[in-house]
């Protein structure tokens, strides 16, 4: 390692090349040492003369100046962490399917709102509105089990249409629902 050139204030100047040790400094009183040539990173320094330049030389980003109780992270990613438990506001999982399971979501959680398949179980208190079509606008038959409302499918009258897998079948509507 090379020699550090330093000036010691408090009324005394030490010449270049003088080794400063605790006994020498104590005899001078309260010295302030100013290093005029920055120490390189390779030699344990920062090769800088200011805190900002030191952070840059060491490759530290903006997070290095943030308070530990007020950190802001924008962009990037976090890896190598342990899954955050549900009790602490996380999902306790590293994958979407495990997260849904840990949160008690059933298979319906991944279904599209316009294409829900219910298999098993009971639905109660649910009002189902069937898609409504004129006969000329019915979708092509071929998906067995579909049920639609047809505005003009029973000789011009309203009816239900049922796709049996090869054609739409008419289900005539009966009398008006009444309490008597």
Helical residue percent? 10-25%
Q: How many E-type strands?
A: 6
Binned strand content: 15-25%
Structural class: alpha+beta
Q: What spatial form do the alpha-carbon principal axes imply?
A: rod-shaped
End-to-end gap: 106 Å
- N to C succession of SSEs: EHEHHEEEE
Strand order of the largest sheet: 3-4-5-6
Q: How large, in whole angstroms, is the Cα Rg?
A: 40 Å
**Largest sheet: number of strands, sense, barrel closure:** 4 strands, mixed
Number of helices: 3
Mean pLDDT: 82
Uncertain regions: pLDDT < 50 for 5+ in a row? none
Describe the structure.
The strands form 2 sheets. Strands 3-4-5-6 form a 4-stranded mixed beta sheet, with no helix packed on it. It has helices at residues 22-28, 51-57, 96-102, and strands at residues 6-8, 33-35, 132-133, 147-154, 157-163, 168-172. It has 180 residues and is of the alpha+beta class. Among the domains are: 6-35, no CATH class; 76-115, no CATH class; 132-172, no CATH class. The mean pLDDT is 82.
Q: Can you tag this structure with a few keywords?
A:
12% helix, alpha+beta, four-stranded mixed β-sheet, rod-shaped, single chain, 180 residues
């Amino acid at each position: 390692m090379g020699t550090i050139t330093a000036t010691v204030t408090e009324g005394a100047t030490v010449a270049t090349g003088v080794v400063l040790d605790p006994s020498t400094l104590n005899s001078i009183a309260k010295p302030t040492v100013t290093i005029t040539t920055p120490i390189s990173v390779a030699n344990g320094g920062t090769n800088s003369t200011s805190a900002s330049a030191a952070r840059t030389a060491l490759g530290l980003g903006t997070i290095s100046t943030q308070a530990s109780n007020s950190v802001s992270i924008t962009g990037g990613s976090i890896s190598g962490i342990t899954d955050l438990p549900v009790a602490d506001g996380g999902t306790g999982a590293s994958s979407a399917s495990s997260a849904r399971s840990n949160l008690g979501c059933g298979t319906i959680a991944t279904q599209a709102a316009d294409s829900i398949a219910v298999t098993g179980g009971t639905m109660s208190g649910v009002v189902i509105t069937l898609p409504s079509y004129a006969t000329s606008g019915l979708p092509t038959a071929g998906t067995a089990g579909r049920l639609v409302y047809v505005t003009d499918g029973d000789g011009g009258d309203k009816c239900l249409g049922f796709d049996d897998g090869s054609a739409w079948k008419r289900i005539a509507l009966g009398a008006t629902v009444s309490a008597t």
